Amino acid sequence: MTAATTSTLLAGSAALSAYLNAKYHISKDLSYLYYQHRGQRYQDQLKRRNRINVWATFTENATQFANKECIWYSDPSIDPPTPHAYTWREAHDWACRYAEWFLGTGRVRPGDCVGFYLQNSQHFMFAWMGLLAIGCFPAMINYNLVGGALVHCVKIAECPLMLVDEEYSGRVLGNSELAALGVQVQVLDRPFEAQLATIKPRMPDAEYTKDANEKTKYALRYTSGTTGYPKAVMATTGRIYSRLAGQFSQMAIRPLKSDGTGDRWYICMPICHATAGSATLICMLMPATLCIGKKFSASRFWSEVRDSRSTVFTYVGEITRYLVALPPSPLDRQHSLRVGYGNGIRPDVWGRFQERFGVSEICEFYGSTEGGLSHLTLQKGDYLRNAVGHDGLIRRLQMRNAWVPVLVDAETNDIARDPNTGLAIRMPYEVGGELLFRLESQASFVGYYKNREATEKKFARNIIRRGDLFYRSGDSLKRTPDGKWSFLDRLGDTFRWKGENVSTAEVSEVLGRYPGVIDANVYGVAVPNHDGRAGCAALLLDPQLAKNFEINSLLRHARKDLPNFAVPLFLRIVPEAAMNATGVKQDKVQPRLEGVDPAKVRGDPLYVLRGDSYERFTAADWDGLSAARARL
């Protein structure tokens, strides 16, 4: 064989290899499998060395990077806001003070849970690390919860002590049910901070954490509670260390170096929730500089990003939509953000956000607080934009019978079954359905803390064969032939109208692309003397365009991309977006209960679709429907 022939064969092989890789994304799948294996291997190595210990890792980082910046925080309640930076040594000293104080109360012993009813701050992290130092953990209670929901969360945690944000202390101190539980309450205010500052920082006895392992509890978290009171989920350290070496290494986050360089991670999402809470803990372990915003504010977001010199940020739900809705500014691209990490960015906003603000990478993940199902997509170009996950050929074959979309009854949410076999009706991936995740056993699912009934409801059996066991995600997803996953709807949000299933996410995306629509919250409403639920879209309009907003132009826009049965029958113009207890995700429950009864919508203008136009919907119209004098 001549040299020329060999060269030609090599060139041909290289071209074929490149073609197959581009078509089937082989290198991407191999990279995913590598990082998955790396995460497990890293955890196994730590386990053999008895080093799966968050406090020990934090202490090592504080020793190695003592004088480098650990936490940046700016308090907007101080006028003007004054940023504070804490070195790793200072952060570690504060954690030691908290550990000493917790033990000094006489209420907290190793293994106990302490309630955190706190907004974001540097002290949230100091107190968290201090608890881990003495073998304890926090209950991450959403500070937006009040009344029965708040009491419910405290009861589950059985916490003898609560740290409470000064701004919301009245909700706790004035709650007689909490008082009856005998919970000691400490308000996190400036006098308390001053008291802590007088404590000499001493390293807690290593005895408290000597038995730390992959099953050690590092936080009690709660679901967002869209279907009743929040459910609790226990988070353990094995999973966070696995993600550190797997998911977050895949994101190519740059750890802190001895010269002080490395990524700076801005987090203004509530740390009490899993997405932000996990990211803050990763910063303490990786290590990376954590930049904390007290809460999300569209008007403060970019100034805090610039002041903190952040390169990575965490998003949840709709915050990118509110950032895109800001008036254009010459400062839009004057920042250092490179990567956005989170979940829930909607397709109608994703591209606009990146193009306007110049954030080159979006790391969108799909998962849940309680579920073992997790998918990560690092999007750097147009191909994976809008995808909540992506599988190449290897992964598609590997997960063929592990991730299964099935048909679900839109009214009952029950899995549809084949009448002959009793097995689930499996849907084509291109069509989609509720995504089920195969489990080896019930122990594979962490479950809801002290809630066996709710845990059992997440299991589905006899799906593709007799005796199998699956986890119900509660979400409908579909996958394109080349492996791109997209979100369809949340189970319970999809509604049925005129014999057809309507995806609220799909309708929201279409309406959200129309100029002047900041937010479109779509849900099904009950209408007297009609079967099913009629579609209603609660629209938050851009104040600059609201006065001349053409509702019927919006109708024509919707009809271009939606089937007739999915075009909202009702529109409700709202002064502000309805958010659930997280403060960053749409609330469909309350608007759905209010429906389109003019007496319940607090004066919001209502419109009903009649023929080819939307017309005002009045109390007289509602009375006509109620008396069966009119039909839709």
Automatic annotation (TrEMBL):
Key words, A-Z: Ligase
Pfam families associated with the record: AMP-binding, AMP-binding_C
The keyword Lipid biosynthesis belongs to this UniProt entry's keyword annotation: no
Domain called AMP-binding enzyme C-terminal: residue spans: 506-583
A GO CC term assigned to this protein in UniProt: cytoplasmic side of plasma membrane
One term of GO molecular function: long-chain fatty acid-CoA ligase activity
InterPro entries, alphabetized: AMP-bd_C (IPR025110), AMP-bd_C_sf (IPR045851), AMP-binding_CS (IPR020845), AMP-dep_synth/lig_dom (IPR000873), ANL_N_sf (IPR042099)
The UniProt record lists the keyword Ligase: yes
Sequence ranges assigned to domain AMP-dependent synthetase/ligase in this UniProt record: 58-389
GO biological process assignments: long-chain fatty acid import into cell
Assigned protein family: Belongs to the ATP-dependent AMP-binding enzyme family.
Protein's name in the database: AMP-dependent synthetase/ligase domain-containing protein
Organism: Friedmanniomyces simplex
